[in-house]
User: What shape does this take?
Amino acid sequence: MANDPATPELLAGKKGLIVGVANERSIAWGIAQRAHAAGAELAYTYQGEALLKRVQPLTDSTDAKAMVEMDVTNEASVDAAFSEIADKMGSLDFLVHSVAYADRDALKGRTVDTSREGFLMTMEISVYSLLLLARKAEPLMNPGGSIIAMTYLGSVKSMPSYNVMGIAKAALESSVRYLARDMGEKGIRVNAISAGPIKTLAASGVSGLRSMLADNAERAPLKRNVDIDDVGRTGLYLVSDLSTAVTGEVHYVDAGFASTAF
Ligand code: NAD
Assistant: This one.
């Protein structure tokens, strides 16, 4: 990691569940690496057998305490995963939700042409899954716990191609605020990170990603794009006791892009 600030063991004694590592480019992986370096014990889920070969060597390098298959569209799979996580972890201090999906067809052309099935599937995987996982994690969570989700500027500004995913991210950000209200009584915090564009598996489904990356780097005050470690550093802050009074927030990690008009 470049310019490593050598974080102290901010997460020593804390246990986290990371949902959404598909490969070494995943944003969830950037957060997992920072959490591991800060002393957390980690459990992971992976979406299906096909991804396991890619994911296992990564998670092994962080001494994963549990590695469980979970498809968020399948309630039985989610129940089975949480029961195994409860057995292996006992309790949780944080949950990282880094999951989204829309068909390639929905991520180009006109938003008005989004099909009913495409809309519902995008909302189920990218939004409902946060409510579902928060509900399943809640009984395992210690007071002072933290849940984070990943969002993007397309929630509050329209842009080419992001389409139904922008609508889903608006709902995700609203979900964060409502979950923060629900969970606050138990001392559990819920926040989102709004990351700038990063070339990942999910992002490569968005038509025109390359020019989006170029525009971003040019217009952002920091004159660059962000990487998964930029998100990992902020993720570490949000799941640690450095952010004890922060909840219901959408925190931008985008080299300042969202703050500019031109
Ligand atoms: P990624 O492809 O590495 O991660 C997406 C993850 O979602 C994968 O691990 C995949 O297995 C999981 N997933 C999809 N459908 C699932 C299902 N049915 N059940 C369980 N898991 C499922 O891509 P990423 O860019 O790291 O995406 C992570 C999050 O970050 C997403 O919410 C994405 O919208 C968000 N985000 C990405 C960018 C970007 O530019 N890459 C920017 C802002 C926000």
